[in-house]
Structure formats: structure tokens, C-alpha cells
Specification:
Elements: E1 23-29, E2 34-35, H1 37-47, H2 51-56, E3 66-67, E4 75-81, E5 86-93, E6 99-103, E7 114-115, E8 124-133, E9 139-151, E10 154-167, E11 179-182, H3 197-203, E12 211-216, E13 225-229, E14 242-245, E15 253-261, E16 264-267, E17 272-275, E18 282-285, H4 286-293, E19 300-302, E20 306-310, E21 319-324, E22 327-332, E23 337-342, E24 345-348, E25 350-353, E26 358-360, H5 362-365, E27 368-373, E28 381-386
Parallel strand pairs: 5-11, 6-7, 6-10, 17-26, 18-25
Antiparallel strand pairs: 1-4, 1-13, 2-3, 4-5, 4-9, 6-11, 8-9, 9-10, 12-13, 12-27, 14-28, 15-16, 15-17, 15-21, 18-26, 19-20, 20-24, 21-22, 23-24, 27-28
The protein binds 2-acetamido-2-deoxy-beta-D-glucopyranose (NAG) (9 copies).
Length: 389
């Protein structure tokens, strides 16, 4: 595996010329209520537009249980939009490719969630209608525009922006984020973005390398997190980054061939796994999920809570190893323990799906500092190294 050399000196040559800089954006776990594992799964399937498939199978996913604490939920950070920048709390999401925010014309948005386009000197309305429609009927729609973004102090112009005018369903009922900041490839964009914001920043000379680095802190160690743009932060990993080729520039995905636990190896019959910072859980096919839980003593399953595991699994010294592009990436079984549901039982960070794709969400990513290299004129890669607080 090759290492990209990135220099970490800040140059003081003017606002555009921040070459070789890496710009940290602090991330914090999104507070508020925690969704049970089935509820999280339900929310996720809305994102991937697969709710219909799930309902066809007759799963009882409807009951949403909430608890008041939080445990490694989603990670959010601040983005400035417009000139001068208006700040919003956004969910940085490698699993989607649109940046959207509410505007004055959004009656279902909270006042603080609304970008005031009149106050931005760089705002340009493109005016094409866009819509994200989910199988459960929730949706976000509006018009396309362009404006400047300020990310960790870096100012970048002419970025594609979705102005949300109508936000329904699950998106309307949150005060935890103001919008989504998609970090995926443009082939998945619904707002017509031709370039990922990070790639646009490289083209504009704002950063030297179209890479981002993400560190997600564990809640039980104090939470927090960091996103860097244009470079990576060696303070948050140990050893060397192992880079893996992304087979297709669509999702940030890797080939996955098997998962091992307790010296047993279970093959994955699908092919790729999506690396998604916007998803809390690890999502695997049902059979594989069952195979893994068979190895975790005391696991229970019911349709309301999904799989729950004894909370003292946090004392386990076992590992679960994911084989990605033929290389092993272990995580501690202790790291799949989420918040308690009662009776000494806890929600788990691994959920089953009837679909044939898998997702490595934050439950996986809190063990690995991750580098997303967009590979502007070449292949894209994902790098992992064991993370460090
Ligand atoms: C909001 O709606 C008004 C009236 O239709 C329109 O003039 C204005 O451009 C809209 N604002 C945005 C940001 O789309
Ligand atoms: C923005 O300007 C338009 C046109 O002058 C006006 O109709 C609208 O009310 C303004 N919006 C806000 C939020 O001030
Ligand atoms: C941004 O767009 C404006 C108007 O289309 C154009 O004049 C300007 O050169 C663009 N700036 C960059 C950095 O692409
Ligand atoms: C918002 O979406 C809902 C559901 O699709 C629709 O009934 C409503 O008319 C829309 N409102 C606006 C202002 O477009
Ligand atoms: C979000 O809403 C909940 C309940 O509606 C409220 O308890 C909480 O204080 C709100 N949080 C923020 C940051 O506004
Ligand atoms: C899942 O397990 C069942 C029962 O063992 C088997 O019939 C089915 O083919 C398996 N499905 C997959 C996708 O492996
Ligand atoms: C489902 O499992 C959870 C956690 O073990 C438990 O609290 C709940 O009572 C169970 N519900 C049913 C309907 O059995
Ligand atoms: C959890 O507690 C049960 C019952 O006390 C015990 O049998 C089991 O070994 C414990 N598991 C771990 C990982 O400590
Ligand atoms: C990923 O899997 C596909 C299909 O099996 C294969 O063609 C491709 O070479 C693999 N890529 C990597 C980087 O392992």
C-alpha cells in the first residue's frame, strides 16, 4: 500500500493560497434521543430508498423506542454557507452526495435552519427543481443553487447547493441538524452537482489534495470527532494508513469477502460494502448477522428491539474481523455495545438486512481513522489506520 505524502504546514499567503494545509472541523456526536436498532435500521433504509423491500418481507419495524442518553450516534459539524458565511450544523455523510439546507420558503424548517439567500453576496439561483423521495413518503425538495462554503476556515466558491423548500417526514422532525453535507461521488447527486465539494476545492486551488480524514471518538471515551479537508491528521491514528482501492466511484465502497469471529470465518456472498459516516450501524445480510450473533453469548432477538446483547459484552476481549479488499480489519466486540434497553441488555451496533448490500457505519469507523481520497484523475481510495484519541 502506498502512502500519499501530504505536507502539514499552513502557508500565510492569502486566503486562497492555503496550499498543503489540512483544515480540521470539529465533529460532535449529535445529541438528543437514541433510536433503537430497528428504528435506526428503518431510518437508514429510508436513505437508501429500500423501505418498500423491507415492508414486503413483513418485518415489524414500526415501533420506535427512544431512550434519553446517546451513544455514538451521528456526528455533526459546522459549515458556513454564503458570503459572509451563515453557519449551520450539518451531518457529514459519506453515504450521500448532496449538500442541502432549508431556506426562507421552507415552512416546515425551523427558523435557525433557514439559509437567508438575500444576505449572501455570492448566492446564485440555478432554479432547477430537485427532490429526494423516500419509500416511506418522507421527502426533501426545492431548487438548485450555487454559493460559497466555508469549511474549517477554507472558503470555496460556486458550490452546488440544494435549497430545501419542503421537508417532510423524518427530516422535518429533527432539531439536531440543519441539513446534510454529502461527501459522496456526483453520480449519486440529486441536486445536479457535477463535482464533489472537496474535488471542487482542489480544482479551485483551495486545497492541494482532494482527500478528507475522519476521526470519530467513542462516546464512552468522551465522544467528539474531527473531519479534516485537504489532508489528514496523524495525531488521530497509529501506524501507517492502509489504502484500499474503491472499485467503482459511486458509493465509497470496498470489496468485502468475509467476516471472522471466534476463529470462525463466515463468507460474504455479496461483493461490496459501503463505508458510510452518516450511518450509525454496521448493516449485514440476515444470515451473516445471525452467524455473528451465534458467537456472542446471551444474544436475544425480537422484532421490536432487534438483536440485543448483554451489556457486559463490553468486557469481551473478542474481535470481529472484516476482510476488505483481502486485508483484515478487526474491531473489538466491545465496540458493538450501544445503550442499555433494560434488564442488563443493550442495543447492538450490528443489524441485519434483507438487501444484498452491506454498510460499515460509525460502529466500524470509530475503530479506524479513515481517509477518503477522491482520486481526481485516477482511482479513488479509502485508507484505514487504527484510531487514537
Ligand atoms: C422564495 O419564494 C419567492 C416567491 O415565490 C421567490 O421570489 C424567491 O426567489 C424564493 N426564494 C428562494 C431562496 O428560492
Ligand atoms: C429576500 O428578498 C426577496 C425579494 O426582495 C423578498 O421577497 C424576501 O422576503 C426576502 N427574504 C428575506 C428572508 O428577507
Ligand atoms: C464562479 O462563478 C462565477 C459566475 O459564474 C464566475 O465568474 C467565477 O469565475 C467562478 N469562480 C470560480 C472560482 O470558479
Ligand atoms: C410539500 O410536500 C407535501 C408532500 O409531498 C405536499 O403535499 C405539499 O403540497 C408540498 N408543499 C409545498 C409548499 O410544495
Ligand atoms: C430539540 O427538541 C427537543 C424536544 O422537541 C428539546 O427538548 C431540545 O431542547 C431541542 N434541542 C435543541 C438544541 O434545540
Ligand atoms: C440463509 O440461510 C437459509 C437457511 O440456512 C438459506 O436457505 C439461505 O439460502 C441463506 N441465504 C443466503 C443469502 O445465504
Ligand atoms: C424485546 O427485547 C428487549 C430487550 O431484550 C426487551 O426489553 C423487550 O421487552 C422485548 N420485547 C418483546 C415484545 O419481547
Ligand atoms: C456477562 O455476564 C454473564 C452472567 O453473569 C456471564 O456468564 C458472562 O460471562 C459475562 N460476559 C462477559 C463478556 O463478561
Ligand atoms: C473487487 O471485486 C471485483 C469483482 O469481484 C473485482 O473485479 C475487483 O478487481 C475487486 N477490486 C479490488 C480493489 O479488490
Amino acid at each position: 500500500m502506498k502512502f500519499i505524502p501530504i505536507l502539514f504546514s499552513l502557508c500565510a499567503l492569502g486566503s486562497i493560497d492555503l496550499a498543503n494545509a489540512y483544515i480540521p472541523i470539529p465533529l460532535s456526536p449529535k445529541g438528543g434521543k437514541v433510536l433503537s436498532t430497528p428504528a435506526r435500521y428503518h431510518k437508514l433504509m429510508q436513505k437508501y430508498g429500500l423501505e418498500g423491500t423491507l415492508q414486503k418481507r413483513g418485518d415489524k419495524i414500526g415501533t420506535i423506542e427512544y431512550t434519553d442518553n446517546f451513544y455514538d450516534v451521528d456526528y455533526v459539524g459546522t459549515v458556513g454557507i454564503g458570503t459572509p458565511p451563515q453557519n449551520f450544523i450539518m451531518d457529514f455523510d459519506t453515504g450521500s452526495s448532496d449538500v442541502w439546507i432549508g431556506t426562507e420558503n421552507c415552512s416546515s424548517c425551523r427558523p435557525t435552519q433557514k439559509f437567508d439567500t438575500n444576505q449572501s453576496s455570492t448566492f446564485q439561483l440555478d432554479g432547477f427543481p430537485w427532490k429526494l423521495q423516500y419509500a416511506d413518503g418522507s421527502s426533501v425538495s426545492g431548487l438548485t443553487a450555487e454559493d460559497a462554503f466555508t469549511l474549517g476556515g477554507l472558503y470555496t466558491m460556486n458550490q452546488t447547493l440544494g435549497l430545501a423548500e419542503n421537508v417532510t417526514g423524518s427530516f422535518a422532525n429533527t432539531n439536531l441538524t440543519d441539513g446534510i453535507f454529502g461527501l459522496g461521488f456526483p453520480s449519486l447527486s440529486y441536486t445536479g452537482a457535477l463535482m464533489a465539494p472537496v474535488v471542487q476545492m482542489k480544482k479551485q486551488g483551495v486545497i492541494d489534495d482532494a482527500v478528507i480524514g475522519i476521526w470519530l471518538g467513542r462516546a464512552r471515551e468522551g465522544g467528539g470527532g474531527e473531519l479534516t479537508i485537504g489532508g489528514i491528521n496523524p495525531a488521530h491514528y497509529t501506524g501507517e494508513i492502509q489504502y484500499l482501492t474503491v472499485p467503482v466511484k459511486k458509493y465509497w465502497q470496498l470489496n468485502m469477502s468475509s467476516i471472522s469471529i471466534n476463529q470462525k470465518t463466515f463468507e460474504y456472498r455479496g461483493s461490496s460494502s459501503i463505508v458510510d459516516t452518516g450511518t450509525t450501524l454496521i448493516i449485514l445480510p440476515m444470515n451473516l448477522t445471525q452467524d455473528i450473533y451465534n458467537e456472542i453469548p446471551g444474544t436475544r432477538f425480537n422484532s421490536t428491539a432487534g438483536y440485543t446483547i448483554p451489556c457486559n459484552t463490553s468486557q469481551s476481549t473478542e474481535q470481529i474481523t472484516f476482510t476488505l479488499n483481502d486485508l483484515p480489519f478487526p474491531i473489538n466486540v466491545a465496540d458493538i455495545v450501544r445503550e442499555e434497553v433494560g434488564d442488563g441488555y443493550c442495543n447492538s451496533g450490528i443489524a441485519g438486512t434483507t438487501s444484498d448490500f452491506t454498510i460499515l457505519g460509525d460502529t466500524f469507523l470509530k475503530s479506524y481513522y479513515s481517509v477518503f481520497d477522491y482520486g481526481v484523475d485516477t482511482i479513488a481510495r479509502i485508507g484505514f489506520a487504527p484510531s487514537k484519541r
